Every structure is written in structure tokens, then in C-alpha cells.
Amino acid sequence: MAAKSQPNASKTKSPASVTNGRAVSQGQWGRAWEVDSFSLASVIFLLLFAPVIVYYFIMACDQYSCALTAPVVDIATGRARLADIWAKTPPVTKKAAQLYALWVTFQVLLYTWLPDFCHKFVPGYVGGVQEGAVTPAGAVNKYEINGLQAWLITHLLWFTGAHLLSWFPPTIIFDNWIPLLWCANILGYAVSTFVMIKGYFFPTNAKDWTCSAARTAAASSGAGSPGPSSARTRPPTGRSTTASCWCRASGAWPATSTTLAT
């Protein structure tokens, strides 16, 4: 499971300590790195085509006995159309949605209610409460790392339910594989969208709200929101135009170069 921020466990480090100490050992926030065009193009490619690639592999195994080139050959030779392949793809089912919702809920409960114990007896395993990366504001959130024990408990319960108690067949995941794939993609996009919106409008640490820097500074000095002239200022070369466009649209132009970097 993903790491959960502990509400009252975050602390703020001074810029000097972040630069000289923790940033080196913990890694820096993503905004601290310069991204080249190839890396940006690679990320965009993955965001756009990763679900399609996964679907292609699943479809090839389901409809073409895992012959990865067969779908392309059939379409190229006219023996199949994309519409035909799509029509044979199983849709989301009520059973798959219920199974996936039950599994996700169970994982959330394991993560939130059960502190990690594997780090106490597994050599080299780093679990329990750990510090995360230093945010641009200098905050360091603490996270409960307990994914290994959640994995072990989940498989133990699956074995018990499928083989000892016969509550469900051992092939329950395989029998609902493609509908479960749709459920996973839907949840993935929903969570990603929520995280992006949360980062813009209500971040965990208000000081990390990068686009509110100028507005916050102006409000604290009694000057109000930045004027139209500051909002129309052309961003310096090399800084993020995405952040600039967002801040210009929201009327909050970043006050420093660090708030513009991505």
C-alpha cells in the first residue's frame, strides 16, 4: 500500500539543514530536479500508453493464446477489426467491482489499523514509521511502512478461504482478471486526479502550496493579491510554463524561482 502521512508527525527543517543534511540522505523533492526533454517525453508516453499496452497484452492472452503478434497480423491482413477485438473484451462486472472494492477496503484497514511488525524480525527490512522526502517548504512527513505484512496477511487469508474453508475458488482472480483490470485502472486514474487536485487546492502542508506564495506574502503584508502587471510578467527562461500558466490563471504568481520549478 502507499504510504500514509501521519497527521501530527511532520516536522519542518530549516533550508540550511535540508541542503546540508537530510536532502542528501533522503533525496530531494521532484521540483528540485531539472527534467530533460527525453525524460518528459517518456513520462508523457507512459501516462498515455501504459494502459493501452497492458490491455494489449491481456487481450492477446485472452483472445490469441498469448500470441503477441497475432492481433497486429490479423488487423493488418483484414481478418479482424479493432471493433471486433473490443467487442470480445469482457466489461466491468458487478462481481469484479465488489471483489475489488472489498480487497481495497481490506488493504486500507490493514494499513491504517495494524502497525508494522515485520521489521522486528526480518533482517534488512525497513518498516514501521519512517521519514519521507523533504518537501519544498522543508517539512518531513512520517509514514507507516507496513506493506510486507499486509501482503503476508492477505495471502494467508486467501489460502485459508480458498483451500481450507472453501469460501471461494482458488482461481477467483484469474476468473475475473480483465474486469478487475478495468477496476484497477479506474481507481488508479481517480486517485491520481484527486492527488493532483489536492496538491493545488488543499495540500497537507500549506507552506508547500507553491502557487500561493505571492498571494500569501501579499496578504501577510496587507497588500492583497498580486496586481495585473505581476500576473502578466513573462516567466524567466527555463522555468516551468505549466506552473506559470496555472499560477497566472489563479491570480497567484509565485514569488521565487523555487516555486516555479517542477
Automatic annotation (TrEMBL):
The gene is DHCR7. GO terms for biological process: brassinosteroid biosynthetic process; cholesterol biosynthetic process. One of its GO terms (molecular function) is Delta14-sterol reductase activity. Belongs to the ERG4/ERG24 family. Keywords: Cholesterol biosynthesis, Cholesterol metabolism, Endoplasmic reticulum, Lipid biosynthesis, Lipid metabolism, Membrane, Oxidoreductase, Steroid biosynthesis, Steroid metabolism, Sterol biosynthesis, Sterol metabolism, Transmembrane, Transmembrane helix. It comes from Prolemur simus (Greater bamboo lemur). Catalyzes the last step of the cholesterol synthesis pathway, which transforms cholesta-5,7-dien-3beta-ol (7-dehydrocholesterol,7-DHC) into cholesterol by reducing the C7-C8 double bond of its sterol core. Can also metabolize cholesta-5,7,24-trien-3beta-ol (7-dehydrodemosterol, 7-DHD) to desmosterol, which is then metabolized by the Delta(24)-sterol reductase (DHCR24) to cholesterol. Catalyzes the reduction of the C14-unsaturated bond of lanosterol, as part of the metabolic pathway leading to cholesterol biosynthesis. It is an enzyme of class 1 (oxidoreductase). This is 7-dehydrocholesterol reductase.
